[in-house]
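HUMAN: Can I see a protein plus its fold?

ASSISTANT:
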Amino acid sequence: QVQLVESGGGLVQAGGSLRLSCAASGLTFSMHRMGWFRQAPGKEREFVACINRSGDSTYSTDSVKGRFTISREGAKNTVYLQMNSLKPEDTAVYYCAAALWYSGYDAKGMDYWGKGTLVTVSS
């Protein structure tokens, strides 16, 4: 049974930082491309960042470039999202996702999902 468990969310002031973690189990971590998505109230789930299987290639959406960094640690089957210079518009539930073959950025293409962790950025 595949499980993705996110942690690290919380309340932070604008300009602050948080690091999200996603622990994966029940899958071959090294074979999966990993991604972070987010969903704000009343909005659709959107792509945030992804990292390839080997961890040497990442991509993020324009709105977080230069502020968020995705990384992965194979020994711990964990993917991280370091979020700096947070803005109120970053407030959302953040989801971790895994894909075996899909190489795009649409949430519908991901195979497995966590339950999410809430990030709230106050102004």
User: Anything to note?
Assistant: The chain has a mean pLDDT of 97. The chain is about 0% helix and 50% strand.
